[in-house]
Amino acid sequence: MTSPLITLEEHFLAATFTDDPSGDDKYTEQLKHIPGLSEKLTDLDNIRIHHMDAGHVSFQVISHCPGAKTVAQCRAANDQLAHAIEKHPERFAGFAALDVSVPAAAAAELRRCVTELGFRGTLVDSHTPEGAYFDGPAYDVLWEAAQQLDVPIYIHPTWATDEQIQLLYAGETIPQAATTSMSSSGFGWHADVATHFLRLFAAGVFDRFPKLKIILGHFGETLPFMVERVGALSKRWGTYTRDFRQVWRENVWVTTSGVWGLAPMACLLRNTSVRRILYSVDYPFAKNEDGLTWWGELVDSGLLSEDALELVAHGNAEELLGVKATHRYD
Into which CATH architecture does domain 5-321 fall? Predict the structure, then answer.
């Protein structure tokens, strides 16, 4: 019997968005390149479970796709997800969708989702639709709520603003397809999350909220390769209760979502505890089957002991989120 696998960067698109013809059309670019994506995104039932079984995913923590969301849309999306979890409690759990443009409302919805709906934390976009990050004092209400509730905040990439695209990724010599990819999943998404995390540290968020739990996807959004350099140079940024390396060790968890290579894992293991590494897929933007193939390569590589493999597969997620993977595959 193989190790159960828990995944936690797994997305859906709520009915409140798919029923709205004026919804964010930025999904169109993704829809063109991933067969069946729309059907997979909108399903919270048998289609999703079928694809979980294909990748031996025992338990999936589901969250909403990136993009602008109103307070009302978030509440409706969270209620829809809660109903799906009630139907499949042995297979699904939830991360709350929040309107990060309104910090107080986001904090209130997080509290509702955790205390009333049983959600395990939240997955939030890496900036507001206007491009604002969450290091200002207005967002202390959200960090405080997460710390008090003892649940993680997963900082997830979102679409670049038009200003970011023009400044960093567009140009007369750059094909439009390259601009679109570089500003999103090809690079820009990951750099944006890394920048956001560095801003949180620089602004003293982890001094004010020392028990805050942050999850970073895609093998840490480029930061593991830079931990030593950032750790050394961040000493020039100011005076902090704990230095960058200590915050990285104590406040951060990293998932494997959507990166199918052994080199990132080898790098991560050199500066990050194996107890802070979480298997994930990034469904349906990545395939559970590809994740399973990569997992087999990791098992065969010898990078991790049997005990460490169990931690990454499910043990760390169970401890962090208070869930349990009971569904097994032979």
Answer: Alpha-Beta Barrel (3.20)
